[in-house]
Design brief:
The chain has about 425 residues and is α/β, with parallel strands linked by helices. It folds into two domains: about 130 residues, Aspartate Aminotransferase, domain 1, CATH 3.90.1150.10; about 250 residues, Type I PLP-dependent aspartate aminotransferase-like (Major domain) (Aspartate Aminotransferase, domain 2, 3-Layer(aba) Sandwich). Helices cover about 35% and strands about 15% of the residues. It contains twelve helices and 15 strands. Strand 5, helix 6 and strand 6 form a beta-alpha-beta unit. Helix 4 packs parallel to helix 9 and helix 10 packs parallel to helix 12. It starts with 10 loop residues before the first helix and ends in a 15-residue tail after the last helix. Bound molecules: pyridoxal-5'-phosphate (PLP). Pyridoxal-5'-phosphate (PLP) binds next to helix 5 and helix 6.
């Protein structure tokens, strides 16, 4: 593969689109104008189904149905019905996944639940380079439990494996790193965690919807993740939490609200947890946002995850091939592993002037993002992107870098959200 250059699409790229078994999925999404949208790892685009879904939810179920809709429209069971559907996309059997709250809140519940399963152990292990909210929450959990210490990869030891021992209660680990796009071997690391007798909490924010996640098969204990990234369920849509059925009886979590009660409508005085996955719930969930989760799932759930994963790898591999020479010529560093098995669904490139480069690309309709201090991120979604999109993104990237057009002062102005 040569380097992408100019507006004309090479024949081998058109051929790839013609042979793509997932090409039909693109029509299920609204991608504005002719944007090449590479920020689906931050906020996925709207699935077309969401427009009718929201109309029905607001007009029929809320406006007309009012409280009757808790039963008649199945509002109360949405969290676990949607959880089961999402579970299929992450290798979870039914009854082990619920949709609720935010990732941050679910990290809190998952860490506390992990600690509750390993009383007497004294450390939580996480990655120093993790998405910060996971670490902020872990800090808070440790601060609230005297005797519990937080140990970080990259700070307390170079490799996470070296921090896991007989003192470890819980290991919180990202399946795909939000900055580098590197993918962990879930089964292998879970085996190491279990060999030390500890609990594995997997963060799937950057893998759910694009990687063929196999939670049950990998022996994962707990997992949390986001629905507004590659699952395309809407800005701030509720997150998910998974707990393997073998832990349901023993685990506890501290946000013991009425939705997690064994009999919420008995209005008993004391807390008595639900016997299953619903014990991870706390209170009333945002029903309108949950309806958008249904729309997001419906856009991809009829396709095997292995096919989405294969196309995702083909896209990230193609992009790397098409920009490699440019990066080498201009001293930009590829942060994402070249080895497909070690890669999620994004390509990250380190460059001190990455911010204006991203702005220059956005001005051309190529939308990636920037993470301080120097990371340009390009997320590739197999659901709504074509290989032609990959080529256009690479050609624009090569041109912006080669010509130095990113040096225009208008691209240096910083916005609040990068
Ligand atoms: C996106 C993301 C989050 C987001 O957390 P919220 O509570 O939804 O704001 C958390 N962790 C990781 C690893 C993420 O990528």
């Amino acid at each position: 593969m040569t380097r992408a250059h100019g507006p004309d699409l090479p024949v081998d790229i058109s051929n790839r689109d013609a042979a793509d078994p997932l090409a039909h999925l693109k029509a299920r999404f609204h991608v504005p104008g002719d944007l090449v949208y590479l920020a689906g790892n931050s906020l996925g685009p709207a699935p077309l189904a969401v427009f009718d879904e929201m109309q029905a939810a607001v007009r029929n179920e809320w406006a007309e149905g009012l409280i009757r809709s808790w039963n008649e429209a199945g509002w109360f069971s949405l969290v676990d019905r949607l959880g089961d559907r999402l579970g299929k996309l992450i290798g979870s059997d039914a009854g082990q996944t619920v949709i609720c709250d935010s990732v941050s809140i679910n990290v809190y519940k998952a860490l506390q639940a992990g600690l509750s399963l390993r009383p007497g152990r004294t450390t939580i292990v996480a990655e120093g380079g993790s998405f910060p909210t996971d670490l902020y929450v872990a800090e808070g959990v440790a601060a609230g439990r005297p005797g519990i210490k937080l140990l970080l990869e990259g700070v307390d030891a170079e490799r996470i494996e070296d921090l896991i021992d007989e003192n470890t209660a819980v290991v919180l680990v990202n399946h795909v790193d939000y900055k580098t796009g590197a993918l962990r071997d879930m089964a292998a690391l879970t085996r190491i965690i279990h060999a030390a007798g500890a609990i594995a909490v997997w963060d799937l924010c950057h893998s759910a919807g694009v990687v063929d996640v196999q939670l049950d098969a990998a022996g994962a204990d707990l997992a949390i993740g986001c629905t507004y990234k590659y699952l395309n369920c809407g800005p701030g849509s509720p997150a998910f939490i998974y707990a393997a059925a073998r832990h349901h009886e023993a685990l506890s979590q501290p946000l013991t609200g009425w939705w997690g009660h064994a009999a919420p409508f008995a209005f008993e005085r004391g807390y008595r947890p639900d016997g299953g996955i619903r014990k991870l719930l706390s209170g009333t969930q945002p029903i309108l946002s949950l309806r958008a989760v249904g729309a997001g799932l419906s856009a991809i759930e009829d396709v095997p995850m292995a096919e989405l994963r294969a196309k995702s790898l083909a896209m990230t591999g193609l992009f790397i091939d098409l920009i490699d020479e440019t990066c080498k010529a201009h001293g930009l560093t590829l942060m994402t592993p070249r080895e497909p098995a070690l890669r999620g669904s994004q390509v990250s490139i380190a460059f001190a002037d990455g911010y204006p480069v991203i702005q220059a690309l956005i001005a051309r309709g190529i939308v990636g993002d920037f993470r301080a201090p120097d990371t340009m991120r390009f997320g590739f979604s197999p659901s709504y992107m074509s290989f032609a999109d990959v080529y256009r993104a690479a050609a624009a990237f090569n041109e912006v870098i080669d010509t130095g057009s990113w040096r225009d002062p208008r691209f240096a102005k910083r916005n609040a959200v990068t």
